[in-house]
Amino acid sequence: MVNIVFTVVSLLVLVVAVVTKSQTSAVLPNQTETEVLSATSQETPIETASPSPTPTPTPTNTPMVTATASATPKPTVQSTAQTSISEWVYTGQISDKSQTEDALSFTTTDDPKTVTAWYKQKMTTLGFSTKSVIQTQSNAKVLNKIAGSGERGSVAIEIAEDSKNAPTHVTVTLDTRARSSDVHVSVNNSI
Asked: Domains in the chain, start-ordered, CATH in brackets?
């Protein structure tokens, strides 16, 4: 009994919806509504062009070249040869340079921020991952430490400026025996 009542009510709702829809559709086509977009009228000159012949493509016998993308990106080629401390010499103006097989120190008049940015980029260029960057500044003294490693070893760089406008001191230590997982950094913040 409940099913019959529910079915009858559903049919009534459907009939009312169809009738309402058909009445709305019959009214809409007869209505015209004009909308004024602006009160002023502006004449726009219409340019006319003389007809010109439509060019037709001429078939050629040129072979079609298609490129396909590789599903896996190819990494940039990094040398697996050992790195040399000479690869880590700063390219700006330096003085008081001291160099051994695995260490390098010098001074420069360049700003510590400039030197730090250069060494961060150098790590990327040589295929090293930056493991730690510590930048401290206190009472016009700057001490920046960068540590990184890669398949070619590990490197630790210290960039220090004792006072404003003083020369920047740089020390680079290279360990070609260490690998990516062997880097340990200790920080002495006693500036």
From this structure: 85-177 (3.30.310)
